[in-house]
Every structure is written in structure tokens, then in C-alpha cells.
Design goal:
heterodimer; A: about 350 residues; alpha/beta; 4-stranded antiparallel β-sheet; about 35% helix; globular; B: about 325 residues; Rossmann fold; 2 domains; 10 helices; 12 strands
């Protein structure tokens, strides 16, 4: 369980910790159905997540759409109220009254910079806005210039009076990052930071995020569906499925020696030459309003479908016994009955 | 022999700010049963080529050159002939197919419509064919009675593929057919397309910005930049041993997981693709090129032979500079 993961982390206080987090969304009920007493279906978007983010760490959170990764990121930002569970910032539980100061320390970078920037504000105004909201002391112009320049927009003065539409996609994303940097954050939560950018510019933005980590020791939580991106930037990778983290560990281990069959399935569908024959999970993305009993992955699990689970006599557990993460290799956790018994064999 | 042969195609969009040259002299060949992948960033002109082949571009757009489909120039066709060729000769699977289906018509009827019009079939006959088509794309026949909103994204894309196949075309143009789909569904749709292409011996022009998808489905690849093809050749060679610095950058954006060269080492290009109305002189890529030298801003390269079956428009290709300077103005 997550207890052991915490134990690994105790040598240093994590910047951010997510403890036993649950987020639900109620579906809509029609008027008549409501009068007849029908209850709304609950989507369990985040369904018991434990996670720590260390100082200066890049953690990638990966999974299919609908797995809850964006909801988790939004909850970490305080943009979404959890049903249960806690977010701890440097060991202190986050309370509503602390949100304002918390958001200065933890900044978010969204997927689409064009949507995230106010088209009627100059770049200067956009970057200065956060400084004003948080009453940051100091020379505003210098702070804005320094943020722009750290985000790679140099010389910064040249950008002050421009509007977002005068910049390219890559530059716009740099403005978003500059807005975050102006407040000297400890953590940046980046939700698909490059997926709306052209392929040739993506690398530059990722390089910038890596530099921020190296020079400023900023911790970065990258939400992405792209495992190639995780391989390029992440120290650790967490794989989410139906609201839970099903595997987490060092990027090298998770991406090259995955323990969970779902992680393997995700790796199998990364396009590559001649890869058209590899196995693909059947079915559509899973539905968070109907989380299966037992291991939540079992209806799509190739280990169950191929009969391997039955052979090693764990099929019943796969179908009936829900399980949490277990540390199967050093620092590498997975929630899989099959991986667990394999790990215990000599 | 080439089924589709595009010769010196130029396309200029008319806007209030003057003409915008989106395609600036492109030659392409797709042989029978072959998949040609066309890659490039947004704005490079790749979708415009797809549209130009079937003359689907906005009225007033200037198109010059030749688009030979089975030796017949599509650009010269009369409206009646053009209608016959669309769907039956060549069909297209669009980007954002999610929104291409009519929401108030059953999907089966939408597919049948194309069959009735193009093959002079009766409604009943057409619906039998629709059933067969749906099974071919992996959907149960009864799905023909569904409306678009009853289908998931992957299923809608399957319906679009069935529709593209409805009149037995010999060429299918697939323009970003998997872009909006989730990773797992994308893999399913790609496999379906590839299987259909193989089984039916289709020729396919596969257009996307995602080079990793292209290398998986294509036989040959053509890379576009600023309205021109800058490199072409066998798919795997172009992807794994790119000759043009732009292809190299594009290819590096799709790292191989497990390859230590990419680990913690993101790489990309500075700058952005040029404004089509202000294409830089010389090589259009030179302002962003990490290996550009003096001549690059003066001499415009064309596709030089760069190994067997390969061409690249770069002055660094062996012998290119001499040829460019000798032949050039």
C-alpha cells in the first residue's frame, strides 16, 4: 500500500502529498426520474489515490482519457473539491482559507495556451496579473522581465506590449509558463503541456520545463497520455486506470519493465515501425460510473482473458478482490494480483 | 504504375490580405496498393493537398499543376465526371470525423446514400451492402440503425471508414483519421485501416502530423515544410535515418521508449514554421535550421537524390551544393 511508499519518502519532506483522495461527479437525472426518486449515477473520477511529489522531481501521470488524471491534477490545484481525502503541502493539510497562498506556491500550466491567455491583454499584463493578485513586493517590471526571460522569451522587453495573437503557439505556452514562474512556485502542475503544440516545438518547451527543475528545483507534475513524453522528461511515472494509480515507480522501470498488464498495454500501443501487429486491448475506454468489482482492470486484462490467471489460480481474486499498490521492486509499486505472485516467486 | 500522380501542384488561397501560397510545387506518386504517408506541421499544406486532389477547396482558390488519377486529370474534369470520381475513384476520411456525421440521420442511411447515388442501386440493395461494410469495419450490422450520438468516438470513425469504402474506391485519402481518438482506440482504428488497405489492395494517402503513426502504416513517407516536400523515401529509412534536418527534428519529437538517447533529453527546434506569405529566401527552413550555413539563405534546394529511392531538399546532401550552384541562377 501507499504506506510503504511514504516510508521511502521520509528521508525528505515531500513538497506535495495526496492522501487517500476521492472525487465524485454526479450525473444528471431527468425531472421525472428525479421525482420518481431515481438517484444520479456517480462517476468516481478519482477513487482512492495516494501520491507524493518530491522536491525537484518530475512525475508523469499517465493514462487514457477518462482515467481521472486531469481531475486529480485539478484537485491538487484546489480547483476541484474532493469527496474525501487530503492534499498536504509540505506536510500541512490544505485548508480552504490557505488556498490563496497555496496557489502562489503551486502553479498550473494548461494544455491549450491560446485558450489560457486573455486575447485582450498584453503579455506584460498577463504575466503581471499574478503578481498583483498576490501583492508580490518588488519592482513589477523587473519581476515580469525576469519571468519572461526565464521562460525563454528574450529579450523580455520586446514582448511586453505584444498581444497573444502576435505570438506563435510555442511562444504562447512560454508566456503561460512565465505567468507561473513570476510567482516563484515550488510546484508546477502541467496538464498535457505540449499536446496542442506542433511536433517540432514540443521539445523546446519540454527542455524549458527540465531547465526549471534543474536550476530552480521546481517540482513538476506532468499529466499526459504520451508515454514517449514521460520517457523524455519524467523521473517517476504513475499510471492511472479508472480513478486509481495502478503502477508507479522510476520511469526506467515502469516504462521498460512494467509490472501491471495495463501499463504493458499502453506501451504496446505506442506507434512504432512494424508495430501494427502487436496486441491491442479490446473495448472502449472504461466507464467511471461502473467500476468493476475486484481488480478494476480485470474485464480487459489479457492475463485474465488468456486463461493465465486461471492457471495460476488467481482468477477468482482478480474478479473479486480489490487491491492496492504493493511494492514489488524497490520503489516500484503495482496493483496486480498476477504481478504480486510473480514477484514473490524466486 | 502510379494510381495517383500529382505533378507540380500549387495552391494559392485567396484572402483579404492577398494570396496565400499553401502548396508551392509538389510532386507525389501513389502506386496501386501502396500507402504514402504525408507528414508535416500545421499550416505546411498537407491537408490542402488532400483537398486539392478531390477538388474540395473553397471556391476561388487557385490550383495549378496536374492531379492524375488513373491517368485522368482531376483538375480538368467536368462537374459530372468529378462527381462520379469522388467516392468511387477516390474517397476521403476526414479529420474530426466525429462531427462529420449527420446527427439526425441513421448512420446506415448515410452510408447508403452514397451507394444509391453513385452505383444506381436501390435502397434495399444499398442497405444490404451497408450491413456488409459495417461488419468489415468491425461493427455489428444492427448498428446501421443507430444515430451518431449513440456511437463512441472510435465507432463513429469506423462508420466514416465504412462510408469511404462504400463505392469501392481505389484510393482513400485519410486526413488525420485518428487524431482526436484516445491512444487505445487510435491503435484499433489504425490496425483496421491497415488491414482493410491490405485486404482490398487499396492505395492510400495518409496525412497526419504524427510521424510515429505514419511510420507504422506507410510504405513510403513524404515530409512537407512550408508548402513543399523536403524529403521522401521508404518510411522506415526516412524516420530512422532522416537526411533533412527538419525531418530529424520531427522524428526526434517521437522518441522510442527505452532508447537512452532520448532519456531526459528533449530536443526540438527553435522558432516556428514561416508565414506562407513571407517564405524566407533560399531554403525556407534555414532560419530554424541547426546546421544552416551561408549558402542556405541564398540558394533554394530542390529534392536531390539522397540514396536509393530517397530524396532530400537540403544543400548538405552529398553533391547537392555543386549541383545547386551549377544549375541555379
Amino acid at each position: 500500500m501507499s504506506g510503504s511508499e511514504k516510508a521511502v519518502a521520509t528521508d525528505e519532506q515531500p513538497v506535495l502529498e495526496v492522501r487517500d483522495l476521492y472525487v465524485n461527479f454526479a450525473g444528471r437525472v431527468g425531472l421525472i426520474a428525479g421525482l420518481l426518486g431515481q438517484e444520479a449515477t456517480m462517476a468516481r473520477a478519482v477513487d482512492g489515490v495516494n501520491l507524493v511529489l518530491h522536491r525537484g522531481e518530475v512525475l508523469a501521470l499517465a493514462g487514457e482519457s477518462g482515467c481521472g488524471k486531469t481531475t486529480l491534477a485539478r484537485t491538487v490545484m484546489g480547483l476541484q473539491e474532493p469527496e474525501r481525502g487530503q492534499i498536504l503541502h509540505e506536510g500541512n493539510p490544505l485548508r480552504k482559507k490557505d488556498l490563496h497562498s497555496y496557489r502562489r506556491r503551486v502553479q498550473m500550466v494548461f494544455q491549450d495556451p491560446t485558450a489560457a491567455l486573455n486575447p485582450r491583454q498584453t503579455i506584460y499584463e498577463i504575466v503581471a496579473e499574478g503578481l498583483r493578485i498576490h501583492h508580490v513586493a518588488g519592482n513589477e517590471e523587473e519581476l515580469v522581465a525576469s519571468a519572461l526571460s526565464r521562460a525563454g522569451l528574450r529579450p523580455p522587453q520586446r514582448f511586453f506590449l505584444l498581444y497573444p495573437h502576435e505570438l506563435s503557439g510555442g511562444q504562447r505556452q512560454r508566456v503561460v509558463i512565465a505567468g507561473a514562474l513570476a510567482l516563484d512556485p515550488e510546484v508546477i502542475v502541467a496538464d498535457e503541456p505540449v499536446s496542442s503544440l506542433d511536433a517540432s516545438v514540443r521539445g523546446e518547451i519540454l527542455k524549458l520545463l527540465m531547465e526549471l527543475r534543474d536550476t530552480l528545483q521546481i517540482s513538476i507534475l506532468v499529466v499526459t497520455h504520451d508515454l514517449g513524453l514521460a520517457w523524455t522528461v519524467a523521473d517517476r511515472v504513475a499510471v492511472m486506470y479508472l480513478g486509481r494509480i495502478v503502477e508507479i515507480g522510476p520511469a526506467e522501470d515502469v516504462l521498460t519493465k512494467p509490472l501491471h498488464p495495463y501499463t504493458q498495454a499502453l506501451l504496446d500501443v505506442v506507434p512504432e515501425a512494424g508495430g501494427i501487429e502487436r496486441p491491442i486491448l479490446a473495448g472502449e475506454p472504461p466507464d467511471p460510473t461502473r467500476i468493476p468489482p475486484g481488480c478494476r482492470f480485470h474485464p480487459r486484462c489479457p492475463v485474465v482473458a488468456s486463461g493465465v490467471a486461471a492457471q495460476v489460480k488467481i482468477e477468482e481474486r482478480c474478479r473479486g478482490e480489490d487491491l492496492g499498490l504493493a511494492e514489488l521492486r524497490r520503489g516500484h509499486f503495482a496493483a496486480c494480483h498476477h504481478a504480486a505472485i510473480q514477484g514473490s516467486q524466486p | 504504375m502510379s494510381l495517383l500522380s500529382v505533378k507540380d501542384l500549387t495552391v494559392v488561397y485567396k484572402t483579404q490580405g492577398g494570396g496565400v501560397p499553401a502548396v508551392r510545387g509538389v510532386d507525389l506518386d501513389v502506386r496501386k496498393g501502396e500507402v504514402l504517408g504525408l507528414a508535416g506541421e500545421s499550416g505546411c499544406g498537407k491537408s490542402t493537398i488532400g483537398g486539392a486532389i478531390l477538388r474540395l477547396l473553397p471556391k476561388g482558390t487557385e490550383i495549378a499543376g496536374q492531379v492524375l488519377l488513373d491517368n485522368e486529370d482531376v483538375l480538368e474534369m467536368r462537374p459530372g465526371r468529378l462527381r462520379a470520381v469522388r467516392w468511387a475513384g477516390a474517397s476521403i476520411v476526414f479529420q474530426g470525423a466525429m462531427h462529420a456525421l449527420n446527427p439526425v440521420q441513421r448512420v446506415g442511411d448515410q452510408i447508403a446514400e452514397a451507394i444509391v447515388i453513385h452505383q444506381q442501386a436501390g435502397q434495399k440493395e444499398a442497405l444490404v451492402r451497408v450491413g456488409a461494410l459495417l461488419e468489415q469495419v468491425g461493427l455489428p450490422t444492427r448498428r446501421m440503425n443507430d444515430y451518431a450520438h449513440e456511437l463512441s468516438g472510435g465507432q463513429k470513425q469506423r462508420v466514416m471508414i465504412a462510408m469511404a469504402l462504400a463505392c469501392d474506391p481505389s484510393l482513400v485519402i485519410a486526413d488525420e483519421p485518428t487524431t482526436a481518438l484516445d491512444v487505445m482506440v487510435q491503435a484499433q482504428v489504425l490496425r483496421l485501416l491497415k488491414e482493410l488497405q491490405r485486404d482490398l489492395g487499396l492505395a492510400m494517402l495518409f496525412i497526419t502530423h504524427d510521424l510515429s503513426v505514419l511510420v507504422e502504416v506507410s510504405d513510403r513517407l513524404a515530409i512537407m515544410y512550408a508548402g513543399k516536400i523536403v524529403e521522401d523515401g521508404l518510411a522506415q529509412q526516412v524516420f530512422y535515418e532522416p537526411q533533412h534536418p527538419y525531418t530529424r527534428a520531427l522524428s526526434a519529437a517521437f522518441p522510442a521508449i527505452g532508447d537512452v538517447r532520448f532519456r531526459r533529453a528533449p530536443s526540438g527546434l527553435g522558432g516556428d514554421p514561416p508565414d506562407p506569405q513571407q517564405i524566407p529566401p533560399g531554403c525556407s527552413f534555414h532560419p530554424r535550421c541547426p546546421v544552416a550555413f551561408d549558402d542556405c539563405s541564398r540558394v533554394e534546394p530542390w529534392l536531390f537524390p539522397a540514396g536509393e529511392g530517397r530524396r532530400a531538399a537540403c544543400l548538405l546532401v552529398e553533391g547537392a551544393l555543386q549541383r545547386a550552384k551549377g544549375d541555379g541562377p
